[in-house]
TrEMBL record:
InterPro entries: At4g02000-like, DUF4283, Zn_knuckle_CX2CX4HX4C. Pfam families: DUF4283, zf-CCHC_4. Residues 246-280, 337-387 are annotated as: Disordered. The gene is LOC104771984. The lineage of its organism: Eukaryota, Viridiplantae, Streptophyta, Embryophyta, Tracheophyta. It comes from the Eukaryota. This is Uncharacterized protein At4g02000-like. Residues 173-219 form the Zinc knuckle CX2CX4HX4C domain. Residues 268-280 have a biased composition (Pro residues). Residues 254-263 have a biased composition (Polar residues). It comes from Camelina sativa. Residues 34-112 form the DUF4283 domain. Residues 348-377 have a biased composition (Basic and acidic residues).
Length: 387
């Protein structure tokens, strides 16, 4: 049903064979006059240059916000209507114009535009590096002709006050590839490297050096089909992409906050394991006084040292008890310490039995032995404090 209806619509005349409508010259004479006092602008990178924003921004840059009216013609051109010839010529002399860091080509209205209408842009170029003995009008012209059509040469041997850089206005095609260096040779055999510096140039494609697009949109960039990519090349490209993203997103490369367990790659092979060293009988024999249950002659029966659990002494304590349980190792160490103290006290008492504090020393020794015996028997249970 839909196909039949579509065929019927195609067979309709739809007014194509109707008589023509005649428009007199008086109806559009005013429009022709008004259009002749206008400029046609062409943003060279429309992907980042919004046309409505260009219409509102460029007249402010010219200082004619209230005297210029802009309108979009199509997806490529913008028309700016001026009120006076003086303002239009003033804007033309101050070319080129920039919006959002990209050039905007401007050309005056033509009633019957040619095929190359608004396909060029005039740029001022500074030529640097010409050796002093060879600076002349002809030398500058011969060098500038290699770049494009010469519009104006801002150099005269009799009036120019500086020759470090010579300004030349050259007409470039909007799709031309810009050059920044050129080697020249003189008839005398001397060579020099000439540098070209473009005034007001902000951004260009870093792949083809054109003024109409970014590198990511460059049509001359070779792209490898996905189905033809070698797995090894694909993996390497992915790694490079990850590294670039890390460099862009890293706030501080030296910050320790970025270090994690996955920051360092795992080793390709495990490190060699070191065998357990054999036991030293002399060290075991020297440590045997601190381990009464371990005998030095049993050293040969063990391949690796096995730690022995020390049975702890249970201490009966209430919730409010201030006494902490002691194990055998701690009690043994205290016995040795207290024994040393006791022997020293006895030695001092034997030599000086007539000392007035001998009884006090004996009393302290007796109390210490009593405490040791109490700990061995199970400790002291202190009754809870009354509240």
């Amino acid at each position: 049903m839909a196909d039949e209806m579509w065929n019927e619509i195609q067979n309709l005349v739809l007014g194509r064979d109707d008589p023509e409508i005649l428009i007199p010259h008086s109806a559009y004479a005013a429009a022709i006059t008004r259009n002749r006092l206008s400029l046609i602008a062409r943003p060279l990178n429309p992907s980042v240059q919004n046309f409505q924003t260009v219409i509102s921004s460029l007249p402010r840059s010219w200082g004619l916000a209230s005297q210029v009216h802009g309108r979009v013609l199509d997806g490529t051109f913008i028309q700016f209507l001026f009120q006076s010839e003086v303002d239009l010529i003033s804007v033309q002399r101050r070319e080129p114009w920039i919006f959002n860091n990209w050039f905007v080509a401007v050309q005056r209205w033509e009633d019957f535009p040619s095929l190359d209408f608004l396909t060029t842009i005039d740029l001022w170029v500074q030529i640097r590096g010409i050796p002093l003995p060879y600076v002349s009008d002809e030398t500058v012209v011969l060098i500038a002709e290699r770049l494009g059509e010469i519009v104006t040469v801002d150099f005269h041997e009799a009036t120019t006050t500086q020759i470090a850089c010579i300004r030349v206005r050259i007409r470039f095609g909007i799709t031309d590839c810009l050059r920044f260096f050129r080697r020249i040779r003189f008839r005398s055999g001397e060579t020099a490297m000439i540098r070209f510096q473009y005034e007001r140039l902000r951004r260009i494609c870093s792949n083809c050096y054109r003024m109409t697009h970014h590198r990511i949109q460059c049509p001359f960039l070779q792209r490898i089909p996905i189905n033809r990519v070698n797995p090894a090349i694909s993996e390497r490209l992915d790694q490079n992409r990850v590294v670039q993203n890390d460099e862009l997103n890293r706030d501080d490369i030296n910050s320790q906050s970025h270090i994690s367990d996955t920051s360092f790659p795992a080793p390709r092979s495990q490190p060699p394991r070191v065998e357990t060293p054999p036991l030293n009988p002399e060290e075991i024999a020297a440590a045997s006084p601190y381990f009464p249950e371990f005998k030095a002659e049993n050293v040969q029966h063990f391949a690796v040292p096995i730690p022995k659990r020390v049975s702890s002494i249970r201490v009966q304590s209430s919730n409010c008890s201030n006494v902490t349980p002691f194990n055998d190792h701690e009690s043994t160490a205290k016995e040795i310490k207290n024994a040393g103290i006791g022997q020293t006290s006895k030695f001092e008492v034997g030599e000086s039995s007539k000392h007035p504090r001998s009884e006090i020393a004996k009393d302290k020794e007796r109390k210490q032995k009593q405490k040791i015996q109490e700990y061995k028997d199970g400790g002291i249970q202190i009754p809870p404090k009354k509240r």
